[in-house]
Amino acid sequence: MPLKITQSLNSCFNFQSLTQEQVDCYQTQGYLFLSQILTTKGLALFREQCLEAWDAEKRGNDDETSWLKKSLLINIHHQSSIVRDYYFWGPLVDVTEQLIGPNIKGVTSQLTFKMRGNTNPFAWHQDNGYGELNPYNAITTLTAMDDADEKNGCLWLIPKSHLEGQIPAGFDKKARSERKPIELQVDESRAIPMPMKAGDSLIFNCWMLHKSDGNYSSDRDRRILFLRYADADAVEVYNNNQPRLGRLLLGQTQFEQVRAFEQELE
Length: 266
Ligand SMILES: O=C(O)CCC(=O)C(=O)O
What we know:
There is one protein chain. The protein has one domain: Sandwich (Jelly Rolls). By secondary structure, the chain is of the alpha+beta class. The strands form three sheets. Strands 1, 2, 3, 6, 9, 11 and 14 form a seven-stranded antiparallel β-sheet that branches. It has a four-stranded antiparallel β-sheet with strand order 4-10-7-8. The chain starts with a helix and ends in a 6-residue tail after the last helix. The mean pLDDT is about 95. Helices cover about 30% and strands about 25% of the residues. It has helices at about 5-10, 20-30, 40-60, 65-70, 80-90, 90-100, 125-130, 175-180, 255-260, and strands spanning about 30-35, 70-75, 105-115, 120-125, 135, 140-145, 155, 190-195, 200-205, 210, 220-230, 235, 240-245, 245-250. The chain is built from nine helices and 14 strands. About 35% of the residues are buried. 2-oxoglutaric acid binds near residues 114, 153, 210, 212 and 224.
């Protein structure tokens, strides 16, 4: 990686190496909390670029019928250079390597914004329910651009629920094309809220059960960057096991189309 890029990455992101204790904790609990992974400068750039993209696409769509459309902006790394740096070359790539292995691709980037007054909940689901990938070690990461707590719609999860494996969610072709949300019925007695400070990141296993409630704050948005990483050879089970396209970030892949995917993005 050119020195110029490395230097500017260091001013925006706090690179870190997981301890063995953190790796073990991720395997047993299914999640890890990474404090202040964005620097003050990185957070400011995130807010500036992501909000500009959000406003251009979403502002004025307040009567949007689909709550998913109201809350998601996909492929934000196509629009924001700081998100691209973070997604492709940031600290989460190294963290993911420690948890998945040497061959890594980026498979999803999106904003999940719950602005003040957006009281739509995001029901219990596993991220592998929305897009089943094999092998089953994909990692979801949420990076907070605002402080998030129970009032403004922070995430909730059920520690160790990843140990239960893939739960059939009925997210078939029709549900997918209609972007119908998954709503799993779960025993919530072990659920815990995951309050975050702006600049923190929460990462979890593709089978982790999680949800968020609405944003009931009158003066605080809840803006999150959602990134997902997977083994470079991961395939889409719901799509006849076709290779999932995503930029190769580390190591190798057997799939030529993955090797070529988004290589032009810098
Ligand atoms: O943004 C949220 O509140 C939840 C997002 C989420 O769980 C997801 O996109 O899988």
